[in-house]
Amino acid sequence: MAPPLSRRSLLRAAALGAALPTVGQAAAGAAVAAPAVPSAWTVRPFGLDQVTLGEGVFADKRALMLDHARGYDIDRLLQVFRANAGLATGDAVAPGGWEGLDGEANGNLRGHYTGHFLTMLSQAWASTGEQVFADTIGTAVGALTEVRAALRRSPAVLSVDGRFGGAVENERGSYQYVDLPPEVLGGASAVTLAVWIRPSHDDSWARVLDFGDDTTRYLYLVARNANGVPRFAVTTGGAAGEQGLDGTAALPTGRWSHLAVTIAGGTGTLYVNGTAVARNTAMTLTPAALGTLAHHWLGRSAYPSDPVFAGAFGGFDVWSRALDADAVAALQSGRPSDTAVGRGDLASYAFDERTGGSLADASGRGLTGTLRRTWGGPSHPGFLAAYPETQFIALESMTGSDYTKVWAPYYTAHKILRGLLDAYTATGDDRALDLASGMGDWMYARLSVLPAATLQRMWGIFSSGEFGGIVEAICDLHALTGKAQHLALARLFDLDKLIDACAAHTDTLDGLHANQHIPIFTGLVRLYDATGERRYLDAAKNFWGMVVPTRMYGIGGTSSGEFWTAPGVIAGTIGPTTAETCCAYNMLKLSRTLFFHEQAPAYMDYYERALYNQVLGSKQDRADAEKPLVTYFIGLGPGQVRDYTPKQGTTCCEGTGMESATKYQDSVYFAAADGSALYVNLYSPATLRWAEQGVTVTQTTGYPREQGSTLTIGGADATFALRLRVPAWATAGFRVTVNGLAVPGSPTPGSYFTVSRRWRAGDVVRVAIPFWLRVERALDEPSLQTLFLGPVNLVGRNSSTEYLTLGLYRNAALSGDLLPSLTPVPGKPLHLTLGGTEFAPFFEGTEDPTHAYFRRAEPTVVFGTLDSGVTNSLDSKGTSLLDEVWAGAPFRDKGALVTRVRATVDAWVSAGLLDAGAGRSVIRTAERATFVP
């Protein structure tokens, strides 16, 4: 059960003020002082609970993700954490994919998805107030608190029902085993080993027992060898010298099986469930031949790559003689002590323990076993993860990437830390902050003792050294705890060669993994906030300009195959693995954070582009309780179909996709730090409760299906400047009225238009933003283009795997708008047809094959659908005659257009690009044509 949310409103406001500074206070709950914000911020955001989404495409997409958040079993995510701590996992099944031991790179990233999920839940709770989200957060935080406590202790048994009496469960992923005393074999020249097991997984080479020195002198028993059958072997010469016994059939998982091995007189026999299945009459090695051995393990192998046994032990006995077949058969009917055979005289473990980590020996020899972890235990009490600390340790000595051994452990730590901070921010649960603070303490203890050169090497390693947005999260943690060591920790992640290059405006991004590096810069901005060190901010600003627009696709995404190439290479990178979705998520975070310092409209122009296209389009338009249905890559090549269930699941992009879909409203409105202005950054149906000014602002719009928006002021009278973003693409006009009266001024595309006055309840601001159709050209291949209508990227739905070839000037309007060349689809807003292909908004999450780019071809000069028959010739820069004509748009009337045509023709004829006769034909065609205004 979740803990009571006492003092929730107060705690949430305080946390928001420290970790994620916002304006004012939600209408509900006790009033508190306005939270402090970094002094460097000249604007600040509103909390998700202060901005409510209205009906529209954003609310529709969010509703789908909220269904997923409500329906997904949180215990499935917690399973890997509980298993790592040796806690019972019940019937929960790990999600698989990147969150499972059988997923990519052996699940080395597991735990990251839980952090994403916590953030999603926190945002959902803040946005909707639905108790189910707070309850699930409480469940998760409570479980993680138990996990950390268990990791701080020595392992304790998980008692379950055995075949006869008790048994001890070894959860898969616990890395626990039983360590027996060295006397367990007693130097016997004849021996019987017998054990009840219930495997929970079909791992190959998971040791039931392994007694030996290393990988040279040993004996072992496995439930499954490489062929999936039981095997016993003994050797004094390593694997090549093994004397073995192999079973004939696989043991079932989830059911009890009895294994017994006898050795005497040069013969070894393997029994399965009382039946002899293998005999080796040349088994000359015995425990006596092995001599004194270094380890005697149940469940662990001396080979580090072998898995730990997953399942239950229901009894283990060792006799100093070889039992005959009848005796082995008798062991099937009960415990050895309840049969004529009697307990093992060398060792006898019933596994009846209910608590603690000691396992009693009933043989009379007092050989108590001890439950241990293969990795020992955490180096610091603040450690919290879904896998052992070994990945963090191994990273410190790595010189090259190998994600099958170490996969971005500090990246995973970031996701967990971020999720905990968001949980605290949303609910005020002190346990979440305690867990987060402990993680910070642990990381500082681990990293602060490493040489600077080691840290630089670690953070420069591809994949293994990736740490995501951990610096931003640690800065937020420091704002909450005030611990100096937390700020010092944030600076330990400085990757100096990257920071210094970007601060000096030197582009070194070619060949770098995009998403490994984008979130670094958001962290640098937050470090600037905390330290005032200018290079951090300069590096982030310059980096942003290295990505936008020279490494950006039309939808706002970046990266090809997860990596960057040289700036300006767009067409040359388009394929099935373009635009990793995480990159767009992180570029939005960076753009937003930079805007807090400098209100450059380009940051919010980019925000609109990426949010309304890639981010919205990355979410499939259907609900699923099992999967969030979010893309990883978005292939931009011809005929690509979006994959909403990428890889094996629970990927980074599905994680950030869950977050994106529950915070769509986070950047619609910002306020000036001194409360003197309200920035309307995005046109979206969203209601703001601005407690500091005592007003509400309700934006009513169908945007982007509507070409404008209406803002209605409510609440108390207040004086402030309303700053309305004029999109850079809004070259067809931007008109503002207040209460029906036009506001004077000349709005400039790519700026903010300011309306300053004393606002009163009922004031209505109407913003009209006419859309027009335009193209954006690939920087390295101008004939490869993508289509936009206002902010909306339009993609052709066509199954062809070759680029479509299209012309757009055929019926271009005097305004320069290309829209008249396409035909609207009745009843489907923003859907148009051209050349037999339907174009639709990128944000529609369908599984249609699409064309984000097409080949532009205007072979002849055409005006108003009249074809002159004259070749549309090119100049030395690749600019066509029609390009040059229409570059002069908008035209006030047809006469102005014809004048432009004459001037262009004269220039083309003079340059030898067009003969005079053809030029006259072009002019006559323009004079005869009828144009859309």
Provide a short characterization of the protein structure.
Helix content is 29%, strand content 21%.
3D architecture notes:
Helix content is 29%, strand content 21%. It contains 22 helices and 39 strands. Strands 29, 30, 31, 32, 33, 34, 35, 36 and 37 form a nine-stranded mixed sheet that branches. Strands 3, 4, 6, 11, 12, 13, 15 and 16 form an eight-stranded antiparallel sheet that branches. A hairpin with a 7-residue loop joins strand 22 (695-700) and strand 23 (708-715). Helix 9 packs antiparallel against helix 10 (430-447), helix 12 (470-481) runs parallel beside helix 15 and helix 15 (514-531) packs parallel to helix 17. The radius of gyration is 34 Å and the shape is elongated. Mean pLDDT is 95; it is low at 1-20 and 23-35.
Beta-strand segment tally: 39
Biggest sheet, in brief? 9 strands, mixed
Shape: elongated
Estimated helix fraction = 25-40%
Could you name the ranges where pLDDT drops below 50 across 5 or more consecutive residues? 1-20, 23-35
Topology:
Layout: H1 8-19, E1 43-45, E2 51-53, H2 57-71, H3 74-84, H4 112-128, H5 131-152, E3 158-161, E4 166-170, E5 176-179, E6 191-199, E7 207-212, E8 218-222, E9 231-235, E10 243-246, E11 257-264, E12 267-272, E13 275-280, H6 287-290, E14 295-298, E15 311-319, H7 325-330, E16 347-349, E17 358-359, E18 369-373, H8 390-395, H9 409-427, H10 430-447, H11 452-459, H12 470-481, H13 484-491, H14 496-503, H15 514-531, H16 534-547, H17 581-595, H18 601-617, H19 652-660, E19 669-672, E20 677-680, E21 686-690, E22 695-700, E23 708-715, E24 718-726, E25 735-738, E26 741-742, E27 751-759, E28 764-768, E29 773-778, E30 781-789, E31 792-797, E32 805-806, E33 823-824, E34 832-834, E35 837-841, E36 850-851, E37 854-856, E38 860-863, E39 866-871, H20 881-886, H21 894-910, H22 916-928
